[in-house]
């Protein structure tokens, strides 16, 4: 829910509540005032009648007599309400009445009770008009509140909306801090200034981290290559052939160095992908079908050693895709290596390539972890594996770099792992 919508709801609730309370009090006030006016009128007529009777004059004649009733029977004194039938409208009409006792007009005369009545129809009409006016004012007030908040959303909150739109499209990897303007509203100006300062610090820290990563990758590459080459030379030295224990130790050290070298290369590639260091000008039309055949041919010895059968299905026409050749090769290599590594001896790999999708499915044991986390860094299906666990993460970054979609699924029927790359 938007902030203005929430505040508008509170304003409307408060306005309706206060207006309802004020309308009720105003209604009661008007009703009391009008009834008091009617009672005062009836009381004045009572005084008038009593004076006439005291002077020996007869009671008033029509039309006043229509609202006057005389009775020899005792009746409750004072004011009261009643309903009488209106012969013209043929409906019950509310009246306010005043009953009082006339004194004896003579020695032999009996007391008499007089009832004066006054219609309250005019009073109710006034109250209906008042309530109607209040209702119209309430509707106009609520409409004005809603219109005012919409105007505020379009004008006063425009700098805030601009800031949100800028933040949604901001990319730290462009290495540019935010340049938000300073609006006339102080609060929005302070917010933009704080965001500008924060983005400058983020860009500075990001640049420092990127430079450190590049320098560390560059400085460690050469020593690793030297260590690996020297270990290979030591293993081939004739003097070490007779010492089996030392040969085993050097072999383990060489294996660890190779794993460290692969980890170094994978992390370097991920860093370059995240920093967008592959220029668009380096992209060339790549035929993925030909690249797949070349990669499968290189993996043939590994497939034979693992006793895995690979089948490639290509569905023409297959357009060339503008990609960096190294990234295209790395994408296919990581996906195929993943299918071989997580397979049974004697298993199968099916590769299907079309203009819209690249799908690699392989047999293998059911996944043990959460499939939604397989694309995270250093995520391994088998903790004892010598793989650094970066293959699928690299594949995902390459797909994201070119706007491709990649997803993993497992089909229990046939126990098949499926990796699908959806081309944009």
From TrEMBL:
It is an enzyme of class 2 (transferase). The chain crosses the membrane at residues 12-30, 126-148. InterPro entries: HATPase_C_sf, HATPase_dom, His_kinase_dom, HisK_dim/P_dom, HisK_dim/P_sf, TCS_sensor_his_kinase. Residues 215-424 form the Histidine kinase domain. Its EC number is 2.7.13.3. The keyword Heme does not apply. The keyword Transferase applies. Keywords: Kinase, Membrane, Phosphoprotein, Transferase, Transmembrane, Transmembrane helix. It comes from the Bacteria. Signal peptide: none annotated. Pfam families: HATPase_c, HisKA. It catalyses: ATP + protein L-histidine = ADP + protein N-phospho-L-histidine. This is histidine kinase.
